[in-house]
Structure formats: structure tokens, C-alpha cells
Amino acid sequence: MEWLLPAVALVLIIEGIGPLLFPNKWRNYLQEISQQPTNQLRQIGGTLVILGALLLFYFS
């Protein structure tokens, strides 16, 4: 449990870099993503979850 809060903090920092440094590009990116089909978004999300789990398993 001691690793959970630092991990969440790191995610928040990484996720905040895009809108902080490139707000217009970030807005355009979100508009483009919102136009994608639901199944494609699920595939991307699933891929990211699996990749994150594998990296967590590998580095821990």
C-alpha cells in the first residue's frame, strides 16, 4: 500500500504535463479521440492496461 499513493501522484503529474505545456494541441487531441469508435477506444485502453500491468510486474 505504501507504493499506491506515489504511483497515483506520478500518474497525475504525467497526465498533467500535456495540458500544462500544450493546451491547444491537447484540446485537439481530445477532440480527435472523442470521434473514435467505442471498440477502438476499448482496444487502446485494454492494450494500455495490459502494458502497464506487464511493466509493473517486470519492474517490481
Automatic annotation (TrEMBL):
The lineage of its organism: Bacteria, Pseudomonadati, Pseudomonadota, Gammaproteobacteria, Alteromonadales. This is DUF2065 domain-containing protein. InterPro entries: DUF2065. It comes from Alteromonas gracilis. Keywords: Membrane, Transmembrane, Transmembrane helix. The chain crosses the membrane at residues 40-59.
